[in-house]
Amino acid sequence: MRQTAASALLRAVLALTLCLALALPALAGEGEGGKHAASKHGILLVAFGTSVPEAVTAIDSLKRQAEAAFPGVPVRLAYSSSIIRHKIAAEGTIKSSPAQALADMAAEGFTHVTVQSLQTIPGREFEDVRATAEAFQAMPKGIRQVSVGRPLLFLPKDIDAAAAAILPTLPAHKKGEAVVLMGHGTEHPANAAYAALQLALWKQDPSVFVATVESTPSLDDLIPVLKRQGVRTAYLVPFMSVAGDHAHNDMAGAEHGSWANKLKAAGITPKPVLVGLGSRPAVAQLWIDHLKDADKELGL
Ligand code: CO
Fold it and tell me: Is 184 a catalytic residue?
């Protein structure tokens, strides 16, 4: 008998608690400037950008993957390269800068925004994206909270994950064949990420190599290594979100200094593969995972 009375009381207390829990957010949500004003959640993807029309498919498929991971959350896209933005604007395609995209989102009432950089390494481009995003967090009546996702190669576990994700997507290669990944490369200390990636790849497959267009290791560093190992054919694969200008020209292009021509001159047959990382869903998923991690930081 006493137990029944106690459980009836408990039920009444629970019901009251539930009513309050349902009513409170509605009350607190009143007024735009209120401490608990309603939140509006959005995502901004930032790519360097590309002027190569076929390369846009890699960015589009990354965006679709982000939209699938966050149903109902608007996903916007910005290009961080002003050179690319101006070049494509002249051809009739308008893309926002990260600052413009964030300003638009602030004006549209977004309160919580996760920014995911589609860079491969935490170099200068990434630092600029982060600084821009953080600046928006400091603006009165603007976006209340911004969280920035890490680039592809950031934590040690990211480097192992990137190696594990890309290896099964590479062309099958037999004895005498190698795969050379083309990273961008930079003078920024983050260039060391490529050496870390090389080590992670070698743990699984000693015939997959990494070189960079603009820094170290260069293809010139790599050619003597390939020759010593008796490599006769090398698949060339861009290690960038898109197979854009660098992939089409510096890697596979017909001009004198292209990787394809340098390899030919060294007696190695080049086989360029013009597919960006964004078009390899297993690799693209890593950026999406980083986006999810950053989004959790918003505490929504
Ligand atoms: Co470049």
Answer: yes
Distance (angstroms) between ligand 1 centre and the Cα of 245 equals 8
Same domain, 170 and 267: yes
Domain hosting 12: range is 1-36
Which regions of the chain are under pLDDT 70?
1-37
Q: Give me the catalytic one of 41, 86, 173, 184.
A: 184
The count of domains in the chain is 3
CATH code for the domain of 120: 3.40.50.1400
pTM score: 0.86
Q: How far is the CA of 184 from the centre of ligand 1 (A)?
A: 6
Report the 3 state secondary structure along 234-281.
EEEEECCCCCCHHHHHHHCCCCCCCHHHHHHHCCCEEEECCCCHHHCH
